[in-house]
Amino acid sequence: MRLIKPDKHYYASYLEAIKEDEDYSPNTERIFSSEIDYFDKCHDYDLGINLPPTWVPATQLWAIENDTLIGEVGIRQQLSDFLIGYGGHVGYEVRYSYRGKGYGTTLLALTLDYIKNRFPYIKKVLITCNDDNAASYRVMEKNGAVMGEKVWSDAKGDRTLIRKYWINLSSHVIETSRLILKETTMKDFDDLYAILSDHEIMKYYPHIYDQKGVKRWINWCIESYNQYGFGLWAVIDKESGKHIGDCGLSMQLIDGEHLPEIGYHFNKTYWHKGYASEAARAVKKYIFANYHFPALYTYTNALNTPSIKVATNNGMVFLKKYKVKDGQMTSVYVLTRQDFDRHNNEKINT
C-alpha cells in the first residue's frame, strides 16, 4: 500500500469506495467525498489557497494497493482552536470492505512517515476520535499514540465525548544551533527547583516556589501538553547537556483574556548569553508553523527590563499596560501573524 496525492487515474476506484461506504455504513463519519471540484480543492487546500473561513491548509492523500483505492487521509498542516478540541492533525478512513484487516494501522503508519518527511516542523501529532470508537483508538495506540485527555464536543450538533491522542514524532520538540527544547517531566524537578526557588530569578513574580509548587508547575506543563500539544518546554544546552531553563507557549489570562503567551525562565548562570532570545524566537517560529493563532503575546512586570528585552528581540511590540491585584503594572507585548509573515517575506525577498 502507498500514499499518493489524489489522481484521476484512480477516480473510478474512489467513486466505488464512496458507493461501497454509503451502501454498508451510511451513518459512518467519513472524509470520502464526491464533490465535482474535488481535485481543484485538494490542490488549493494543500497550498493554503481559497480556504473556507476558519480552515487551515490541509493535504489530502489516497491509499492505493494494486490500482485499488483502499482509504483516504486528510492532514491538517496546522492546528486551530477548533482542531485542538476536535479533529486534530489527521483524519483517515479505510474503505468498508477492507476494514478489520490491519489496513488502518498501516495507513496511519504511512501517514506519520509522510508527515515526518513533508512537514518536519510537526513534532507532535494530534488525532481524535469518539470515545466509543474502539477500532479507531486501537489503530492509534498501535502507532504509539498516548491519550492526553477526554473532552466534550458539540462540533457535529450532538454532545459527544472525544478522546485526544498525541503521537510524538521526535523526543525533541524544537532544536536550535545551541539549544534543545523538550517536554518537561518530573526528571527536571531539581533543575527547575533551582530556578523557581531563586529570589533573584523570580524577583518580578509574586513569590518563589517551594517543592510542592514546582511539582504543581511540572504537572501544569504536562496538562498543557495533553490539552494543546504545547506548554513550557525544558531548555537543554547542547554543548553541556545541562538543563538551563524553560521556554514555551502557555494559555494565560492576560487582562481578562485567555491568550497564547511565550514565557521563559533561565538559570542565572546562563543569563546575558542570548539563550532566552534564541529559545523564544524558536518557539515563535514553531507555534506559527504548527498552530493557527492570529497573534502571540508576552506579558511581564513593567519593571522587568530583561524580559521585555527578550520580547522585543523576538519581534514583539508594546501593546498596553494594566494594573494587577497587588497594584503592580504589567506590560503586554504582541506579535501578529501578519507582521511575522511580512517580516519573513521581506527577508526572503532581500
Give the key terms.
five-stranded antiparallel beta sheet; alpha+beta; Aminopeptidase; 10 helices; 2 domains; single chain; 350 residues
Could you describe the 3D structure shown?
By secondary structure, the protein is α+β, with helices and mostly antiparallel strands. It has ten helices and 15 strands. It has a five-stranded antiparallel sheet, with helices on both faces. A four-stranded antiparallel sheet has the order 1-2-3-4. Helix 6 packs across helix 7 and helix 8 packs across helix 9. The protein is elongated.
In short:
The protein has 350 residues and is α+β, with helices and mostly antiparallel strands. 34% of the residues lie in helices and 30% in strands. It is built from ten helices and 15 strands.
Which helices and strands appear, and what pairs or packs with what?
Blueprint: E1 2-4, H1 11-24, H2 38-47, E2 58-65, E3 68-76, H3 81-85, E4 90-94, H4 103-118, E5 124-130, H5 134-142, E6 146-153, E7 160-168, E8 174-175, E9 179-183, H6 189-196, H7 211-228, E10 232-237, E11 243-254, E12 257-266, H8 275-290, E13 295-301, H9 305-313, E14 317-323, E15 329-336, H10 337-349
Antiparallel strand pairs: 1-2, 2-3, 3-4, 5-7, 6-7, 8-9, 9-10, 10-11, 11-12, 13-15, 14-15
